[in-house]
Amino acid sequence: FYLQLHLVALNLPLSGDMRADFQCFQQAQLAGLTSTYRAFLSSHLQDLATVVRKTDRYHLPIVNLKGETLFSNWESIFNGNGGQFNTHVPIYSFDGRNIMTDPSWPQKVIWHGSTANGSRLIRNYCEAWHTATMGAMGQASPLKTGKLLDQKAYSCSNHFIVLCIENSFVS
């Protein structure tokens, strides 16, 4: 067994008013995963690019729930190409469903609230993920672009995919 960080989706789409870190933690525990998971989102406290520990950003592959590689490492997501990934490698939810094909996520769009380099977009992160009002905006990425950090703004009232990243590996 080699070291890797898992990227997993929450079991349901969420609007801009979410307690995403808590839900990532809770759903990982319920799925029997022992490491810590954090939301794949920029927040008022932290830029997305720094969610993973510095020591783990360069050498650990980012994989899906079944261990298939999505990114060679965390840093490669933020190299300016918008987090381009192989769309033939599915992203799974904590309960094992493929978010790319499962109808539970009718809109195949991922919330992130970040620039292409993983910095927070203060105007476009649903007031630090505390509002689902129609007028507020959140930065998100349509999955069909094959990028996790494509730059599109949507109303925070939308229910989109929320990803979680394993941020501390427990051996």
TrEMBL record:
It comes from Heliornis fulica. This is COFA1 protein. Residues 5-170 form the Collagenase NC10/endostatin domain. CDD domains: Endostatin-like. It comes from the Eukaryota.
